[in-house]
Structures are given as C-alpha cells and as structure tokens.
Amino acid sequence: MNAYEDSIRFRLAEWERRLLKPPGLLERTSKTVQTKINEKIPAKVHAALTSAVKGIFHTVLFTLDYVPKGLPQAGLTLQERDEKAAALVNTYKKIAAAEGAGTGAGGFALGLVDFPALIAIKMKCLFELAHLYGYSTRDYRERLFLLYVFQLAFSGRDHKTGVYRTIQSWDATAELYPPGELALQTIEWEKLQQEYRDAIDFRKMLQLVPGIGAIVGAWANYGLLEELGEAAINSFRLRLLGAPGGA
Fold it and tell me: What Pfam families is this protein classified in (predicted)?
C-alpha cells in the first residue's frame, strides 16, 4: 500500500460518512419544497422525463452502443487512473454545460429535449470511466454496476444507503446475478426513474423558466456531471482498494 492509496482510503471513509449521515433540517425541508413543486409540474413533463430515462437505460443494458472502442486500461496505478478520470469528468462537465446552455436558451420545448441528451452524456461518461479503471462494459454485469453508480449519484438519502451497500460488495453481489438479460428483472425500474427524477427535477425545471434558462441549464448540467463523477470515481476506487477499514 503506497501513500497515495492510503490517502484515498481516508477520503473514501470521509465520503462514506457523508453518504450515510442522517439528513439534516435543510435537506428535509428542501425535499418537502421539491415535492410541492413537483406536484405543480405538468404531467406531460414528468412523462417525458420518465420515458427518456427508461429509453436510455434500455439502450445501455440491451446494446453495446455506449461501449468505448479498445480494451479497458491495464497496467496503470490508481493515481494514474484517478488523474485520467478527473480530466475525463472535466471534459464531460464542459460538454454537459454547453448542451444545457443551448437547450436552456431555447425555452420549454428545447428544455425537454435536454433530459434525454443529458442522460446520454452521463452514461457515456460512466462507460469511459469504467474502462479507465480497467472494467469491460461488454460484460452485462459491469453495465448493471453503472446503473447502481447512477442511482448512487441521483437518489434520495434513504435509497442511496442501500445502493451504496450494493456497490460496496459488488464483486460478491455480481456473482449472484442470473445469466444475461434475466438479471435485468432485478432492477426496480420505477424506483430508479422516480429517484432520478426527484434528484434533478428542481434544478432542471428552473431551466424551463423564460429568461434564465440558459444560465440555469449550464449550471445544472455542470453540477450534475460533477456529482456523477465523484460517485463513479469513488465507486471504482472502492472496488480496487476495498471498503474503508477493510483489508
């Protein structure tokens, strides 16, 4: 174990504490406000987002469309992987911000278009990160893992705890999955969609407000990619180093 890996273990332990701590007053209040806002959003907006989420995830799991060209990275130290991953996430944050600014400036109709586009950007980022950390997404179990990482980044705290525990023991958990597409039956699709929708709705719905859409769109997309990048990088670190406090 080298000094860099020791420092990452410490940071993983801090990250775990942040993930698992009970929600504070501000978070509980924000959730209540967000729920009320969601109730006022037209059903067609919710339906569009739900359809986009399900469609993208279906493509992710049933096809190899998002699998990067070439073999997963091998022979790199964790520090080298982390440096490459940070650069990759920064690139995707800029792509997402530009996409959000463009659709945000276009008002309501283009704002709706941004939902599936942003999900696609997020999934492309996750697939490339998996290969950077040495995992082949040609294996359907690795594609399932990315769905759990996605949920870890964009779920409420109650759901996030269970997802984290699954990621923490992924290599053992993956062996229990049935072969091929039967494993897809284990995914709670409606739960996944609802958690994602609730996690991003407030920021993304502000993007639809005339006059501020472009600014909010860029800000929201940049922040969402930043959250995804942190969740993904730390999840892959967990797999390579083991859980905080582990062997």
Answer: EcsC
Residue 4 to residue 81: CA distance in whole angstroms: 12
Rounded to an integer, what distance in angstroms lies between the CA atom of residue 184 and that of residue 192? 13
Report the predicted TM-score, pTM, of the whole model to 2 decimal places. Answer: 0.81
Task: Report how far residue 119's alpha carbon sits from residue 221's, in angstroms, rounded to the nearest whole number.
Answer: 10
Query: Which residues does 8 contact at the CB level (< 8 Å), separation at least 6?
Result: 78, 82, 237, 241
Q: Which residues of 159-195 are buried (b: 16+ CB within 10 A; e: fewer)?
A: bbeebbeebbebeebbeeeeeeeebbeeeeeeebbbb
Give the amino acid at 5: E
Summarize pLDDT for 185-212 with one digit per residue, the tens: 667 766 776 777 666 655 555 555 555 4
Handedness of CA 210, 215, 219, 222 (dihedral sign): positive
Asked whether the beta carbons of 229 and 128 are under 8 A apart, the reply is no
Q: How many CB atoms lie within 10 A of CB 111?
A: 23
